[in-house]
Amino acid sequence: MKHLQFTDEHGSFSIEQPENTSYLYFPLASEKGLKSSVTPNLGGDAKIDQETFLLEPVSAENLHNNRSVRNFWLVSDTGEIFSASGASAQQEASRFTELQDDSRITAGFMWHSMERISKSQSVRTVVTSFIPVNDNAEIMYITVRNLSDSAKVLIPFAAVPVYGRSADNIRDHRNVTSMLHRIRTESHGVLVRPTMSFDERGHRPNSMIYYVYGCSGAGEAPESFFPTVEEFLGEGGTYTHPRAVCERRTGVPSGSFAAGREAMGAFRFPEVHLAPGEEADYILILGAEDNRESISQIYEKYNTPDKVKKALDETKSWWREKVNTGFHTGDADFDRLMKWICFQPFLRRLFGCSFLPHHDYGRGGRGWRDLWQDCLSLLLMDPDGVGQMIEKNFGGVRIDGTNATIIGEGDGNFIADRNGIARVWMDHALWPQMTTKLYIDQTGDVEILNRKVPYFKDAQTCRGTQNDEQWDAGQGSLLRTKDGEIYTGSILEHLLVQQLTAFYEVGSHNIYRLRGADWNDALDMASERGESVAFTCAYAGNLRELASMIRLLESRSGEKEAVLPEELQILLNGDAGLFEDPDAKNALLADYTQSCRHQISGGHFSISLSVLADDLERRAGWLTGYLREQEWIDGGADEGWFNSYYDNHGRAVEGFFPNEVRMMLTGQVFSIMGNVASDEQIRRITASADHYLYRKEIGGYRLNTDFHELKFDMGRMFGFAYGEKENGAVFSHMTVMYANALYRRGFAKEGWKALKTLAETALDFDTSRIYPGIPEYFRSDGRGMYHYLTGAASWFMLTMITQVFGVRGEAGDLIFAPRLMGEQFDSQGKASVSLVFAGKQLEVIYENPEHKDSGEYTISSAACEGYRLQTDSAGYAVLPRKVLDGFSGDHLRVTVTLN
Fold first, then answer.
1. Quick one: pLDDT at residue 86?
2. Is residue 362 part of a domain?
3. Looking at the structure, do residues 296 and 442 belong to the same domain, yes or no?
4. What whole-number distance in Å separates Cα of residue 323 and Cα of residue 753?
5. Could you tell me if 450 and 596 lie in one domain?
6. Which residues are in the Glycosyl hydrolase 94 catalytic domain (predicted)?
7. How far apart are CA 432 and CA 579, in angstroms?
8. Is the pLDDT of residue 254 over 60?
């Protein structure tokens, strides 16, 4: 029997005895800002932002160390104690014995329910936790049932420790900041309002009120309170053996006040009498608000079981409707896993890359790369407003081709860098264009290239190598002309600036410099001589795609010329001989960055769109030939691969070394995706990847072989143990991009192998030890790590829809180009995907009665609501946008027959 069982088609699941597995946690969040994590014993934390933690911040190791969890205690009239969270000394002592509680987690999108049965006391509790969509309140709905044949008298205690301050204070002035607490009990709970936000750079008055409220389902208020940790635990007591509970103490009354102590949202309810089979219920509400009235309103909104159940149903419905993409294949568990993968981008939008136990290195917000890759999933699930979002996001680009790296609150708000360090990630110019290309394909809105947006401006200039002493923060964060006017340029212009400046910033091998790092942030110690072959391949593909976008703009708009700032004439030097000379390239780039170091002239010039496209294609062609000749490693015996990097000593990092072979996956992904690798080279690359990198039992393709050295001339990744994170783990993001690249080039069998192995490992709970979804990586023993907040989810969903099922836009039209394998069809030979395109909810059904593999079948017929689709020169079925828009209904079915 599988440990993890799906319980419905929405991906809801259950696990027996979840406390027997370490490091499990589940995310809860609202659209308003509250973000929580919940463990099987109701540990974890809750916060609104870095400065506003309701519960104590936790990292992964705290999950089994901490006992200061959300708890609900029951004490019988004979003195027996039971914790609904399982966090009592007696229950922990009985774990892994025949006396262990029966327990089960059941969970779905943004709700989590823990059922626990005490074998010794014949009591069952169910604690259901969720956060309503539009409130900053975590609700715990608790039911208690008497399973015995005799009546029971129980005294319930609620206990939630309130941290109530910045995460920084967990180690910085923890005790001092407790002195700021002002704690008050009211009829239904405990309120904590610190006097100030403690920050030695500048203390600020505090208005935030943290609270824990509660009542019984019958409307009874608590009868007494324990507003401080010391009062609840008692001298010598612990969170698993609190004296207030064990000794059935009576706390202080409503209206009491305490100050300068660690706060506790703990209270005692009146004793309850339960006949055999009878049930009682309780409601706990915990949250943070900046005024007392809002807390009262929240309490009134959720203070009865009916209100809570209604809110729970609304929460479930909200998130299920958000995940408006669904899959039907021959594997029902895979289909339900895909529901979670499609949900993960929403979690990343809410949590950023922080605020979950493994993601303890961030302080909130998303990075530049995250911003653009998360848009990929939005274009497939929630496309409304993505065009405006893209426009605003381009405002983070600097005129030197670099960009702000941290995104502030809302769209179009940027911060130079989280840590105030001038850093350039050389891959950052890649992602905006990829996202814009998908947007144009999905919508047909090529005119977005003409829309005007500003440039980001700060003291960092000349691609992070100099400071602009003339810049004054009082001028704002927008680039200006010499006349002091805010300068705006087209999105096409922004893309050209990004791609062309990258083209000229090369190292001694004429490969794009690595700088601070590329996609792999852990390659951060080769800034002087490091070069990224992998992303040079990716940029070659970008140059080709940008050229195609320009040609589409010309054909659709009738425009013949682009108007660009006069400084860009430097970058558009058409001398092909320059391409071969790294020193000349760097000198040209320096001329350009100096010309716009502080401001831009405001002058313009015109250039033919066709000439511009030709120029970009010429650059891409030169790069392709150069990379194929210089960077290919012949592995012999039908194997081979591309070198991915040069280290800080200028040496190639991959190839055949004494006693070992060094290979990295990244260079193979982007040489395939960027159309640098030929078909024959792809066949040899896949053979090499299967030979040196593939480990089925731990998720599939490792990021690299073991280099057996610390390699301080490349990056911190080589200090990690081999098989951990960027050093040789199965890194989901790059594996999915490998699959995506293979599908794009027609290698469906190889692409499916990569996706399938990831999915199978994630679903094998005995190996992965995670709830459903794709983690950032699988470590050396196959355990899933850094769950939920990974760009791999967006790419997995993108690949499944646009490549595996082949349902994708091309300049606004919808094409059907399936690359499904025979095993992906159900027993009747059918597979389907539901998704939103052009404002229509589509169900696309493929019929393959003979279960043929991709490459063996062609499209024999295709129809949408009676309209027969034509096929193009590639054999794909095409639904023109004007025809799609002409259908009156919002729900359409497309049936495609394969033979």
1. 96
2. no
3. no
4. 26
5. yes
6. 638-806
7. 24
8. yes
